[in-house]
Amino acid sequence: MSCIKVFIFAVFWELFLHSLDACDKGWFGERCQFKCHCQSDCDMEGQCVGDKPRCDYRWFGTTCQYQDLATVNGTTITSNARENTHWLTDRDAQTCNNDPGLESVLIVWNTEYWFTWMRIVMKSLAQFKSVDVQFNQNTSSQMLNCTKFTLNTSSPTLEIHCSLDFLVRQITIKSAADLCDIYISGGVDFALKQMANQSSNYEGTEIASLAVDGNFNTWSHTENEDKPSLNVTLPNPRLVTRIVLYNRMYDGNNYPIGHRLQNFELKALDENGDPQFRYKDNNSEPLHNYTVVIAGRTVIKIIVYATYKKPVITERPILTLVELQIFGECLPGTWGLYCNQSCPSYCPVTCTQEEGSCHLIHEEECCDDVASLEQYLSLTGSKNLLRIVQGHKDVCQTLLQKKFRIKLKLCTIIHWQKQYMNQ
Hints:
alpha+beta, Jelly Rolls, 13-stranded antiparallel sheet, 23 strands, about 15% helix, signal, Galactose-bd-like_sf
């Protein structure tokens, strides 16, 4: 009997310890800092499970942590085809274009974004002959191409990573007949459950952490001060591309208080405490949410200041935030959900954010030099592909002598991949 009691106690003790480590429903991660963005549910590792094991409409990636700029508010997707393009963003790689006349897809935003990378899913790699991706700074007809870009292919998916010197308002994809899905990275929200502090706490309860808890029914709230502030510190520097602030528009008595965030100031700091970016709101009316686009700066801390004063002499500013989101990517050379893994040393440039696999093309050169390409392929175990490259050195050298648009470069790498798959 005593043995049975000991056994039962051990079982319950194990369950108790497990409950201490478990995250609340809808959260996962080492510190339960990642929010589930699946259509049904997530497991403890963030993988989608249930009857609809796919990401929500506005998210994508292995654990659905990347916000999709192809589906954010203010996005318009059109094409020259007769049918609509809902299949491009339905999170289902089995629903693809069925119109053989589809030549191009146009993605237009109502604001500018800093482009980092996009993912294109095709019907099959065998049918993927070419693709042409072009960018616009605004809605003008002038098209601009990548000057520095890298690729990663995994049948039937293509990732395009592009370093641009300008913000993007429009993307055009041509030779689009075999398209199934498009995802455009808006980054990961690195602010969730991170260390947050503010200059004061209203009634001691509406603390700073409520602005990074992922709950849009809670908010942070300072006292009346000369220049109240809230700051969020990330565990490590990130390549920050966008900050979104959600405003509290009404108080508990339905009295409008959205003006409190009006004319806010924002500052982004690096590890040394040096400012990398500054912004001041100049809207004449308060907004429900504010999006501040940053041109890919290395940042570890964001500080928000309230400055608005109502035309009453005795009233000082108050800072209250429903949510503060800091979107970005891992720094170059690192990858993973926590951005704590280094790219393989044999990668010629850098690697993908999610899986750490090497990019295949860099800047304006397809092969760079044959010797380093052969070394890379041998280290990665791509023996058949290595044999193909070694057998076509004249083609590779010819590519080195000219500058090509993305279309030709993509055709080249896909040509290699197709031959590799047929070996």
